[in-house]
Design a protein that fits this description.
This protein is α+β, with helices and mostly antiparallel strands and 220 residues long. It contains six helices and ten strands.
Length: 220
């Protein structure tokens, strides 16, 4: 009898321990793992991209909402110092000239912290835009708040957006084309093909590629 009482006591204690350590369940169902916010992991194709308000090299503030008649945007995170970004500057200008009047203007954003890379300071941005004859806004991501939202990791890194019911929907993410070094050797024009498809109301075949370039400079 004594052994039976000991066994019963151990069993009750064990059940109590189980009820204490079991995960809580509310009326909505089992607990779900925590998800990473969009601001941390960036956008995926099909996501709505938030608008922003950033300073242009002319000193004026620019937002996507300023472009009332745009059908979409070619948002490119780029900078002054990066060799990859420099290689693409002329091609970025050509993209804006080709698609800007068709409703898909280029919006360039410098995401780098100038205290880490002084060549990417605002004064240097103004000089670079004038020197190259940029036909598009060249914005500074002061405080580095916009590039993490998009999930940009390189310069250059492209996000093609299309306006749908007043929302800017991501349609393509990645590189400009498949040869940063020499435009004459390009065989796949990712951004160009994506925008051409959107202009024809067709789906984008290549929706995501790996961006090739310099890492975004952040103060440690």
């Amino acid at each position: 009898m004594k052994n039976l009482k000991i066994l019963m006591t151990a069993l009750i204690a064990g059940l109590g321990l189980l009820s204490f350590t079991a995960p809580n369940h509310d009326h909505n169902g089992p607990d779900k793992p925590k998800t990473v916010s969009k601001a941390n992991k960036g956008y995926e194709v099909g996501d709505e991209a938030a608008d922003f308000k950033l300073k242009n090299v002319d000193g004026k503030m620019v937002s996507l909402s300023d472009y009332k008649h745009a059908a979409g945007f070619i948002v490119i995170f780029t900078c002054n110092h990066c060799p990859y970004a420099k290689k693409y500057e002329d091609r970025i200008i050509e993209l804006d000239k080709k698609f800007g009047y068709q409703g898909y203007p280029v919006i360039a954003i410098n995401p780098n912290d100038p205290s880490v890379q002084p060549e990417d300071g605002f004064k240097q941005m103004v000089e670079r835009a004038k020197q190259k004859g940029f036909t598009f806004p060249y914005l500074v991501d002061e405080g580095q708040k916009v590039y993490p939202q998009y999930g940009a990791t390189k310069t250059p890194h492209v996000f093609v957006l299309q306006k749908e019911d007043g929302k800017n929907i991501v349609k393509y993410i990645g590189a400009i084309d498949n040869n940063y070094d020499n435009p004459k050797d390009v065989s796949e024009y990712y951004v160009q093909d994506a925008v051409n498809a959107l202009l024809k109301n067709q789906p984008v075949k290549m929706q995501k590629t790996v961006a090739i370039g310099c890492t975004i400079k952040v103060k440690k």
